[in-house]
């Protein structure tokens, strides 16, 4: 019985950590997928002759929420079973700068959508999407 208790005490923290890491990976993959889908949606709305600004505001709020959330979803130890390259954790400075640039693009989109400024909204979206593409080239193992 003592051996079982000791074994559980030793393995449970590792198991919990693995579960926590997997939850983090799942959450960030969900955020990235949502960003991809929402960015496509907002691009379609902005391409219309008369964009539905209420819809643009709603979508851009979601994009901002997901991009802001991502900055906390790459903690040390969350690389196992991830599609992300180790460079994210080995040299996080550039990666974090890119995340912040993407986040700023979505914030610019959101602010422009509240002003109903089509040009600024498109620029914010383009900045965020360009950053996504750059980041994928540098930090994603499987495209």
UniProtKB/TrEMBL annotation:
<dbReference type="Pfam" id="PF01322">
    <property type="entry name" value="Cytochrom_C_2"/>
</dbReference>
<dbReference type="InterPro" id="IPR010980">
    <property type="entry name" value="Cyt_c/b562"/>
</dbReference>
<feature type="signal peptide">
    <location>
        <begin position="1"/>
        <end position="18"/>
    </location>
</feature>
<dbReference type="InterPro" id="IPR002321">
    <property type="entry name" value="Cyt_c_II"/>
</dbReference>
<protein>
    <submittedName>
        <fullName>Cytochrome c</fullName>
    </submittedName>
</protein>
<keyword id="KW-0732">Signal</keyword>
